[in-house]
Amino acid sequence: MYKVLIFAGTVEGRTLAEHLAEKGYEVHVCVATEYGESLLPKHAGLHISHKRLSRDEMEEKMERLRDALVVDATHPYAAEVTENIRSACERTGKTYIRLLRDTQKIDEKDCVRVESVSGAVEYLKQTQGNIFLTTGSKELRAFTEIEDYRERVFARVLSLPKVVEACSALGFEGKHLICMQGPFSKELNTAMLRQFDAKYLVTKDTGAAGGFLEKYEAAREAGAVTVIIGRPLAEEGVSLEECEALVQRLLGEPECPGAQEEAQEIALIGIGMGSAGSMTVEARDFCRSADVLIGASRMLESVQLPDKPRFVSYKPQEIADFIASHPAYRRVAVLLSGDVGFYSGAKKLFDLFGDRLTILPGIASPVYFCDKLRVSWEDVCLASVHGRKNNLVGLCRKNAKVFALVGNSGGISELCRKLCSYGMSGVRVHIGERLSYPDEKISSGTPGDFSDYETDGLSVVLLENPQPERVVTPGIPDEAFLRDKVPMTKEEVREICMCKLRLTEDAVVYDIGGGTGSVSIEAARLAVRGTVYSIEKNPSAVALMRENKKKFAADNLEIIEGLAPWALRELPAPTHAFLGGTSGNLAEIMELLYEKNPSLRVVITAITLETVAEAVRYFKGNPRFEEPDIAQISAAKGRTAGSYHLMMGQNPVYIISSTGNGNTADERGEES
User: Which one of 251, 337, 469, 487 has the minimum C-beta count within 10 Å?
Assistant: First the structure.
């Protein structure tokens, strides 16, 4: 005998019926039409009828089903049906459960709310301009009271023969009758509003599953007023998850011995560029069969499945909490743009869910964009400046091709202005906007062509450098730098210091006593994905360093005018530090550096015995640093004198290098 009787006029009701049947409960489902029946799956535990029932017929069915629970999952506007179900339950002594739809908050300033269909008609009689009706065919007759409705009103209804016949009889024909089956995306709604030059969109507050938000947002974009027919009942009830839990609590475990609780299946889905057509078949099939879709608004809108329950979020912990608190959702689709492995939120979700995740990759934007440009992408350097910092100028200087995600409308113009200022106007710039959408736009040109160009928020860029630097070692000649009278670490010493620093590509480097910036620029070119902070107290040296920064396109070099250690306090923690001039503050500087990063790699140069003694004194007996490596370098450079070459000796330089041991404990007797 059936244990649950569901009046399923909504997607939530159909979802509940399917979930309960899968768990082993016998479920009887009442829908009002054959179309409603076609939306339910074939299942041995489901018995479906599609006859409209009067209250007496409801009572009769409830009597036959004896102790079955009754779930009212009818449409929120079916007030009379809800009242009949409730009354029939009271007369037969059945437990009544009302399953509600989720509501959505909107900005009411662009909307007009009316209490009923007749209220909408009366309001529209006082207006001018075309009307786009999305309320279906059942109440279409009321809108024929609008004087010129045959010219003003465009009605979207189901593509069923009986519906078309009834609408035609009311005078809705030709382009004024749009027969379509949803779901409808915001883009499609917007296009239709513009096609019909509609000034008003009429809808009911059908919640997320009914596509209400897609209609409301489309009306705002198209400049139309949304006329909302408000909910007729201020109802009390339970959500889908609460309803499923309540049924299980009231009925206990299903009698079917083979039924058992299944673990949630969670899939991370790369939806591609954004249009539904760019998703893989596997990804789309999972979304269609999922019980709930999770993701940012744009992701949810892109899949064009508004009949699905959804949770709007892109925060990993928030997503994990939602999934844990909604066990009724057996198949969960978490939507990510592009591919899950390319600058997505997947990394943190991996940590939260581990092996529970199914990964369905999508088409990554660099693959799509390069194919559009007919450019191979196996040698492309990948980057992103979407919500993060990246040295695109430096990457472009070193690579023939650089692809980047861009985070705002002015990001590409700012990049192009930098390329121009660094003398890199020969770089070829390709810009992709709204990739895969109908209004996709691809532009190509020089940095100068786009120095004032504003892009769409969804944009990417491919930079092609015909003459990238191929040298991978330090070694800029001394004469390449602008010098004036500012002291400079000489080339041979500088290159040894670079090796001693052991820089990484993403290093954060302090150059203390920057001088001309020779060490800073060498470091900036090696740590191309990192940042170099050059600290210099001499204003003349600072001005010269800015000129050298421009000459060498060292965009990841930040010049700090001031005296160490005080000028260092607000800077990010360094991974590496070079001390070329300490002004007698070596010990204080080292203490601050260690405080910022106990695992710091440091290199100190000294030409005076006093500085050498100060450094040795600091490291001697200091357990916070490894035993320092001390080297003395004496270099001589050849100079021509007539037909001869003379070797001219340079000042001997001491190079002292060490690494912090990473221990934050106070080594002077206190334990951590």
Answer: 469
Region 516-532 average pLDDT: 94
Which residue has tokens 């020089």? 446
Q: What single DSSP character describes residue 660?
A: B
Could you give all domains of the chain from N- to C-terminal order, each with its CATH number? 4-100+237-251 (3.40.50.720), 108-229 (3.40.50.150), 265-363 (3.40.1010.10), 366-464 (3.30.950.10), 478-659 (3.40.50.150)
- Contact of 146 with 152, CB cutoff 8 Å: yes
Distance of alpha carbon 424 from alpha carbon 405, whole angstroms:
20
493 neighbors 605 (Cβ within 8 angstroms): yes
pLDDT in tens, 173-198: 999 999 987 778 888 899 999 999 99
Other beta carbons less than 10 A from residue 241's beta carbon: 17
The encoded tokens of residue 298 equal: 């744009």
**What is the C-alpha end-to-end distance of the chain, expressed in Å?**
68
Largest alpha-carbon pair distance within the chain?
120
Residues in the chain: 672
Q: Return d(Cα 472, Cα 423) in angstroms, integer.
A: 21
Contacts of 508 (CB under 8 A, 6+ apart): 530, 531, 533, 572, 573, 574, 575, 576
Q: Are 37 and 31 in contact (CB under 8 A)?
A: yes
Return d(Cα 145, Cα 643) in angstroms, integer: 108
pLDDT band at 591 (very low <50, low <70, confident <90, very high): very high
The sign of the CA dihedral 494, 500, 504, 510 is negative
